[in-house]
Amino acid sequence: MNRNPHLNELGEFLKARRGELSPSEVGLRGGQRRRVSGLRREEVALLAAISTEYYTRIEQGRLQASAPLLDEIAQALRLNDDQRTYLFDLAAKERLRPPTSGDRQQVDTQLQRMLDDLTASPAFVIGRRTDILGWNQLAAALWTDFGRYPEPERVFLRLLFTEPWMRELYADWEEVTRLAIAQLRMESARYPGEPRLAALVEELSARDAQFRQWWTEHDVAMRGKGVKKLRHPVVGELTLDWNTLTCGTDPDQHIIVWNAEPGSPSHDGLRLLASWAADQKPTTSDTAT
């Protein structure tokens, strides 16, 4: 019998999460010596108040769990909000239509105008599979002239693995990359079978062992906000805040805006970068070919 691939993915996610927990973290005794780390299936079943056999069938992708039962399992595994959202997206019976290879995301004129008006803040628009869909001049100066890449290669996660300058730019490259992978996996639950997303995962899995390892860890994250340290070849070290906005006309387009604390060295660095960019005139997405 062919199993539902979405339920298989759900089972792999549950297995990964229980492997991260120790009995003491959930109020259980460790008992005898364990061959592998993490909770056993019977311990998760105990915490969720179901039989071990029933939980095993869920983890093996052989059973569609109800929403109340998933909620019990989520509590048992101490899932955070992002992980709970991912779990329920995987289990959803009514799923979003997977985009086809012809479903091309584009930044509209009004959104590009808004990006261009952000002259003091680097900003770019990222799509379903971390495609760079739009950017302003200061973003091109901070990262690169994205317009020099063919559209299929203009993918943030792909650039993290294929471009040495990305490793040099981010002081915490591993943290940035793992977050991007976690965000991509979050998208994969909403659009299972999306051909371009699947092709990206296949390409990076074949190219890089580190990607393969991190992808199989099943970490997930929503797009949000944070602070990153960058090392720019022209203006030096920058500590920048980043925030995510969602496009009103396409909720799968996310606007990432970067800024620095007023009066800080990083704020001065961005002003210097803006001056340098005005002389270089890197492309924005409305001028890229």
TrEMBL record:
CDD domains: HTH_XRE (cd00093). This is Helix-turn-helix domain-containing protein. Pfam families: HTH_31, MLTR_LBD. It comes from the Bacteria. One of its GO terms (molecular function) is DNA binding. Residues 38-84 form the HTH cro/C1-type domain. It comes from Streptomyces liliifuscus. InterPro entries: Cro/C1-type_HTH, Lambda_DNA-bd_dom_sf, MLTR_LBD.
